[in-house]
Amino acid sequence: MSERVTMRDVAAIAGVSSATVSKVINERPDVGAEVRARVLETIARLGYRPNAVARGLRARHTDTIAILTDDLEGIFTNALMRGVEDAASAYDVSVLLANSYGDPEKERRHLRRLLDRQVDGLIIMSGNRVRPRSGPALPLPGTPYVFLYEYGAAEPVPSILPDDRSGAELAARHLIGIGRRRIAFLNGPASWDATRERLDGFTATIREAGLPLEPGLVQHASSWSPEDGFALATAMLTGPEPPDAIFCGSDDLATGAMAAVLERGLTIPGDVAVIGFDDRSLAVHQRPPLSTVALPLHEMGKVAGGLLLAAIQGEPQRHEIIRVSCELRIRASTIGPDGA
Amino acid sequence: MSERVTMRDVAAIAGVSSATVSKVINERPDVGAEVRARVLETIARLGYRPNAVARGLRARHTDTIAILTDDLEGIFTNALMRGVEDAASAYDVSVLLANSYGDPEKERRHLRRLLDRQVDGLIIMSGNRVRPRSGPALPLPGTPYVFLYEYGAAEPVPSILPDDRSGAELAARHLIGIGRRRIAFLNGPASWDATRERLDGFTATIREAGLPLEPGLVQHASSWSPEDGFALATAMLTGPEPPDAIFCGSDDLATGAMAAVLERGLTIPGDVAVIGFDDRSLAVHQRPPLSTVALPLHEMGKVAGGLLLAAIQGEPQRHEIIRVSCELRIRASTIGPDGA
DNA sequence: CTGAAAGCGCTTACAG
DNA sequence: CTGAAAGCGCTTACAG
């Protein structure tokens, strides 16, 4: 437990004032070359490291942002957080983690603690489901924030979301491209925002291609589970004119749908091509491996981090919805050995 | 952007010194009742909040710990982090997140930044695979740390790990309990520590019960994937005396094993009971839902957080391996409608 | 180009 | 029980 070396020590040994040491550390131009060299040498020799807490107190910023999530276990939390952390790290900004479990009282407590710690900004994130929310549980006077995978109804701040609409277009266009004509959409629960966006994209693309769009071909599941995918796909396949492709609103739904196809003795993708949404890790392990539309979670996190950092630098914020493009991951469930 | 209210303001308005305000805030006993009341009232009225950065500078602790992980995307990271966050939150300690991607240079940079920020302690965590590591990339003078889901070869600090051995015993005992006699163990790759621990637990339990333990019944996969589970289970089932139960080293392996059982026209659990390890979310969605040994990730995170907080309070640390008990999750793949 | 002084907002002995 | 003083380790005008 040796005494920590401080800026005073460096100054004394280098024979300069601590103001000068500070200037060297902060790379101010107004320091003479040989003085700078001497200070740098002393810093290296003593192994001096500036105390960020003292700096934060004086400089009035802490180079710290926080992620406030209501769902640290959400299936998408990891990749979102990693994106934020990457963006912050690149600017030597640290990230604090706070989990509210969706409890407003917990959120309030976290927010207070975070503000007490003088965080420079906040990312308010849902790891689980995109929905509008009524802003943070506490007003954040002068502290910028952004919504990630979530959006504020009327907050004057940006929301970063996946581009669900164009993601659905990607899937539809891919299925059309491999020659499918009766393309079903096994969509997620109707109450979700993403569900509506994707329906728009899907419908527009199918229409444009002059393909059929019967009511039976577009269904809404009541959950995102494989069980629902199985049930709905079974119903579709037992109809008079079964689809030759099924686009599912999630990889879980697609997993169930594939089981339904195989159970009826049909082949994938020979008889029915199947494509999911999300690109969770299970997709690649399906038999056959599942084609899917990948949610750009990591990129969304980076965008959110970048935007927040810019706002901290003084960039004005406004209410806007930023949609990050999804990416198609083509695997054997749409282009397989037994495929087209 | 109104001026923030400071302790000076409170003191002036309440007509006391700031030392007294500080004592009230820190709940020191040596403040008169009416003075305390007056100060408290003033604090509430002004909405005063103490600046944690200033406090940290003076008090020489920041009530902040950090999680340094090499794998923020690891499949177990979420639950581990959540446990740490829960433990920290309960004591009003914040947690900083740093991801090294397993790159020692990145780890060094993060560590330096974290130390500069005067974190009170660190949790060094792997989100992915348990293995020994050579301690943090930088010496942490006076800053306590613990290993979570990872262990230091000779570091004088605790490591928190799952109790793999007793987890395997749980599984074996369960299968014996439901009347199985030829129990196979489709274990993970031999190079993993967990694999050896589980083999010990499994072997001991089977021996104790006087059940057969032929070489063919114990196999090591070369990865944890469903594909390997499928291949190995198929080999086991085509042998002269196929098993009536398969204990798998991961849920992914078990998924593959179940596919192999079903593909051969056998029933689960009627002909072959299958149980996994981990309790990932996919387990419950299998058909039939997969029984498994749950890794106590959340609890491990809490234990790690609690131990670190104790060390920060001055509790001496030493090299020790703390094993947290796994839990059996019984589902239809061992006790099903077509079961025993 | 360099440094003396003030001060960020607290807490900690210490005196009374 | 209360407060004056010092100081945590920096940075920021400002003077020279």
Automatic annotation (TrEMBL), chains A, B:
Listed Pfam families: LacI, Peripla_BP_3
InterPro entries reported for this sequence: HTH_LacI, LacI/GalR-like_sensor, Lambda_DNA-bd_dom_sf, Peripla_BP_I
Domain of life: Bacteria
Keywords per UniProt: DNA-binding, Repressor, Transcription, Transcription regulation
Protein name per its UniProtKB record: LacI family transcriptional regulator
Coiled coil feature spans: none
Natural source organism: Paractinoplanes bogorensis
CDD domains: HTH_LacI (cd01392), PBP1_sucrose_transcription_regulator (cd06288)
Keyword Transmembrane among UniProt keywords: no
Domain HTH lacI-type: 5-59
Gene3D superfamilies: 3.40.50.2300, lambda repressor-like DNA-binding domains
